[in-house]
Amino acid sequence: MAKLVLIRHGQSEWNALNLFNGWVDTKLSDKGVAQAKAAGQLLAKEGIQFDQAYTSVLTRAITTLHLALEEADQLWVPEVKSWRLNERHYGALQGLNKADAATKWGDEQVHQWRRSYDVLPPLLEDQAETMTIDGKSYPAMDRRYHDVPAGELPKGENLKVTLDRVLPFWDSDISKALKDGKNVVIGAHGNSLRALVKHVEQISDEDIMGVEIANGQPWVYELDEDLNVASKDILKPEA
């Protein structure tokens, strides 16, 4: 059976400040670096050997993957980066403090934006003044997306739209590696990984709202030849 391991990046600088992060390219905090290394130590303890790695094009995910693989003595594993594994785009919420957003729009509305499956946040196109903050808010401003058709670049996403973005890369690359019997590790983000978990485990739209993936705690799946889940384990540091 092939193994699929999902690792959410360690705490980012903006996570530590309680800001909506999304596609803004922040780095890991000191705590995040420690979490990424701890994830690699857990993988080393389990003795999992990888054949292929995938990550997003955002620094916090790339750094987490590299630190984890280094701790597991597997930094050499072939790696593919894709914008399709990016965090969900929080639209006009990006850069805002979550507590301030709750004060402005109410706890229930912000909770819906954060956790619901199909409720969109305020889109960048609805608040044009936020589209060019430091040249970062709208992804077309960043050259790492130069080859992505403009119509596919988001101005705000919910989990449903994120899943629609992630699935083509799952079908074209990740699932093929798994069907070839390769052990795969993915270093990505809370919502892009939740989208994959929904797909792999066939979780309902309602139940996925309750799924949370902690920073730096690897989710380990064993998948059969049809990519059905044979086993699942969440690796956690010892208390």
Automatic annotation (TrEMBL):
SUPFAM superfamilies named in the record: Phosphoglycerate mutase-like
Q: Give the record's keywords alphabetically.
A: Gluconeogenesis, Glycolysis, Isomerase
Top EC class, one word: isomerase
Outline what the protein does: Catalyzes the interconversion of 2-phosphoglycerate and 3-phosphoglycerate.
* Annotated substrate binding sites: 8-15, 60, 87-90, 98, 114-115, 190-191
Part of which pathway? Carbohydrate degradation; glycolysis; pyruvate from D-glyceraldehyde 3-phosphate: step 3/5
User: Upper lineage ranks?
Assistant: Bacteria, Bacillati, Bacillota, Bacilli, Lactobacillales
Query: Among its keywords, does the record have Repeat?
Result: no
InterPro entries given for it? Answer: His_Pase_superF_clade-1, His_PPase_superfam, PG/BPGM_mutase_AS, Phosphogly_mut1
Q: Which HAMAP family match?
A: PGAM_GpmA
**Pfam families to which the protein is assigned, alphabetical:** His_Phos_1
Which organism is this entry from? Weissella sagaensis
- From the UniProt record, list the coiled-coil ranges: none
Q: What name does the UniProt record give this protein? A: 2,3-bisphosphoglycerate-dependent phosphoglycerate mutase
A GO molecular function annotation here is: phosphoglycerate mutase activity
